Amino acid sequence: MPDCLQFQGTIVVSALYAIHHDPKNFKNHEIFNPERFLGEAGNLINNSKIVPFQTGRRQCLGETLAEMSAFLGLVYLLQTFNFEKVPGFHYTLEPKEREEVVHMPEPYKILAIPRIHF
C-alpha cells in the first residue's frame, strides 16, 4: 500500500455497511430485498461482495456454525409461529443515525401467533 499512510499496530476493520450498500455491488441497495442473495433456482448465490462475518485474518472462525444455527433457529420459528404486524404500529427498516460499526433498524413489535400442530 505505497499510496497510503500506515501506522504500525493499527487495527483495520472493513466497512461492511459501505460494502453492502455500494450501488456498484447491489442494485437498489437502499431497499430491503433478501431475494437479491438468491439465484433463479432459489439457492444462495456465492457472491464475494457479501461479507457478513468480516474479512482477512480476523474473519469469524464460527461463521459456519453461526449460519447453521441461525438457519435452524429461523426454520423452527417459521414452523412454530405465524407472524403479523401489530395494528397501528409504524414500521421502518431504516437504520438509526449513530456512529457505530453495526447498523440496525429501530426496535419494532410483531405478533408471534402459535401454530396449532396435530
TrEMBL record:
This is Cytochrome P450. Gene3D superfamilies: Cytochrome P450 (1.10.630.10). Pfam families: p450. Belongs to the cytochrome P450 family. InterPro entries: Cyt_P450, Cyt_P450_E_grp-I, Cyt_P450_sf, Cytochrome_P450_fam2. Its cofactor is heme. Keywords: Heme, Iron, Metal-binding, Monooxygenase, Oxidoreductase. Heme binds at residue 60. One of its GO terms (molecular function) is heme binding.
